[in-house]
UniProtKB/TrEMBL annotation:
It comes from the Bacteria. It is an enzyme of class 1 (oxidoreductase). This is Cytochrome P450. Its EC number is 1.14.-.-. Belongs to the cytochrome P450 family.
Length: 406
């Protein structure tokens, strides 16, 4: 067995992608030679364990002896969070452990069942068609990020939560700061504080007068079951609002880019729309955009792949590395929409904290990809790939702008 004190060399994390369509090159080397390894976090110089194989990532994410609580010493933070803010922060669902996590998640699960999301599909289709209508009316070139990728999930999550969409530009700005690894502590803190202030007023209004939306329904259930207080509801709303548009928006843009750059794969989807669900799963696996979002800290000594991780040490189970593990996904760096094992990906995480909005994200991606390439079959990039700016500085990978024309 290997103990933490035996590690002499700590590479810096996060590691950058050298190709926008591939994970950092170091991941494959680590999977082959040191699947559980030490690294130094760039954000604060502290150590953390990197877990890189599919088997071991699933093991960590399913282990009750590790915690998601970001207030615990040793937790591998990815942002410059002011100490005073960390002490006073209210844990959100992703950062909770049972039983608090179990109680709140149980109240939210009915909002994201396959049946409920299926019922939302006609409205999602309307939103996508409206945005594509606007693109066609404006004429190319357009930035697909602002014209479609960001607006569709923002509209969907606003309607689901009961958040006025006319405020989207402001909360998207706060969200962008909160997702940026390089944001200064004061900037990060100010963005969180501003968004929470906005949502505090919104939640207060719904406590006084309920509507037909997720936040209102949660408040009504909570009057009976009492699993959360007012601040918990605000924090839950922040997680849903930011998570509900940020990840899907990035996947829409990246997926469109990947299909444009892999014309054989795109032609197959155009020829057989029944391939769309499998194509969505493969694109989710291929990018695994929230690579280090499942940070953990060990509550007691655990053994992973023959390595002992001590109580109080931080762990980063890297789902992007796991989803490119050759032992599970043959030829993993090749985009293959016919890949049968694609749905086994860990892009939505694993275990009790698996993304609660996975069903919604899948439907949004299916509708966007299917509708876009059906209605604008001649879609193409309006700028060279090498000129695009990718979000190497963000918690959720993506592309800042995607100029397209037709």
């Amino acid at each position: 067995m290997t103990h933490s004190a035996d590690r002499a060399r700590h590479p810096a994390f996060p590691m950058k992608r050298t190709c926008p369509f591939s994970p950092p090159e170091e991941y494959a080397k680590l999977r082959a030679t040191e699947p559980v390894s030490r690294a130094t976090l760039k954000v604060n110089g502290k150590p953390a364990w990197l877990v890189t194989t599919y088997e071991h990532v699933k093991q960590v994410l399913g282990d009750s002896r590790v915690s998601s609580n970001l207030k615990l010493p040793g937790y591998p933070h990815q942002f410059h969070i002011p100490e005073e803010m960390l002490r006073s922060v209210r844990l959100m669902l992703l950062s909770m452990d049972p039983p608090d996590h179990t109680a709140q998640r149980r109240m939210l699960i009915p909002e994201f069942t396959a049946r409920r999301i299926k019922a939302m599909r006609p409205r999602i289709q309307e939103i996508v068609d409206e945005r594509i209508d606007a693109m066609l009316a404006a004429g190319g070139p357009v930035d697909l990020v602002t014209a479609l990728a960001l607006s569709v999930p923002s509209l969907v999550i606003c309607e689901l939560l009961g958040v006025p969409y006319e405020d989207h530009a402001q909360f998207e700005e706060w969200s962008a700061v909160m997702m940026n690894h390089d944001a200064a502590p004061e900037e990060y803190g100010a963005a969180v504080q501003a968004l929470d202030g906005y949502l505090d007023a919104l939640v207060t209004s719904k406590e006084e007068r309920s509507g037909d939306d997720l936040i209102s329904r949660f408040i009504e259930k909570n009057r009976v079951e009492q699993v959360a207080d007012h601040t918990d509801v605000v924090t839950m709303a922040r997680l849903m609002l930011v998570g509900g548009h940020e990840t899907t928006a990035n996947m829409i843009a990246l997926g469109v880019l990947a299909l444009l750059e892999h014309p054989g794969q795109l032609d197959a989807v155009k020829a057989d729309p029944d391939l769309l669900p499998r194509a969505v799963e493969e694109l989710l696996r291929f990018f695994s955009i929230s690579d280090s979002g499942a940070a953990r800290v060990a509550l007691e000594d655990i053994e992973v792949g023959g390595t002992v991780i001590r109580a109080g040490e931080g762990i980063l189970p890297l789902n992007n590395s796991a989803d490119h593990d050759e032992a599970v996904f043959p030829d993993p760096d090749t985009l293959n929409i016919h890949r049968e094992e694609a749905r086994s990906h860990l892009a939505f995480g694993y275990g009790i904290h698996q993304c609660i909005g996975a069903n919604l994200a899948r439907v949004e991606l299916e509708v966007v990809y299917g509708t876009l390439f059906r209605r604008i079959p001649g879609l193409r990039l309006a700028a060279p790939l090498e000129e695009l700016r990718f979000k190497d500085d963000a918690m959720v990978y993506g592309v800042y702008e995607l100029p397209v024309t037709w």
